[in-house]
Amino acid sequence: MSETDLTKRILKWLRGNGFWAVKRHAGKFATRVGLPDIDALKDGQSFDFEVKVPGNKPTKIQQHEIFKLRKFGSIAGVVWSVDDVAAVSESFEVGGFKSASWKLSEGDRKW
């Protein structure tokens, strides 16, 4: 599956589960290099998801932007599947989510 297809599936899941969610533009139309692919909101909380297919990892600039977003209160990180997004959502809803604990490597997905 491509990152484009995975992004579409994640957006569909988010919108079907009470999130406002949009895909940020990349490439020459990007507003800022390195921002996560998906910007979402739910119950007043900002979420930023960098979408990667299994085996891929975020660039240094993407990691830098994720940490900056976290500093300003967003729940931000990398996701490799719809299940990853669902786990973040579930953790947020039960009130136990700490953005700083969201790992940036595929092998360490502790929310």
Note the main sheet. 4 strands, mixed
Alpha-carbon distance between the termini?
24 Å
Question: What count of domains describes the coordinates?
Answer: 1
Relative helix content: 25-40%
Predict the CATH topology: Trna Endonuclease, Chain: A, domain 1
Query: What's the pLDDT, averaged over the residues?
Result: 84
Based on DSSP secondary structure assignment, what is the total number of beta strands? Answer: 4
Architecture overview:
Helix content is 34%, strand content 19%. It has one domain: Trna Endonuclease, Chain: A, domain 1, CATH 3.40.1350. It starts with a helix and ends in an 18-residue tail after the last helix. It is of the alpha+beta class and 111 residues long. The chain has a 4-stranded mixed β-sheet, sandwiched between helices. The chain is globular. 27% of the residues are buried.
Short summary of the structure?
The protein contains three helices and four strands, in the order αβββαβα. It is α+β, with helices and mostly antiparallel strands and 111 residues long.
Question: In terms of topology, how is this protein built?
Answer:
Elements: H1 3-16, E1 20-23, E2 38-42, E3 45-51, H2 60-71, E4 75-79, H3 82-93
Parallel strand pairs: 3-4
Antiparallel strand pairs: 1-2, 2-3
Task: Sum up the structure in keywords.
about 110 residues, alpha+beta, Trna Endonuclease, Chain: A, domain 1, four-stranded mixed beta sheet, globular
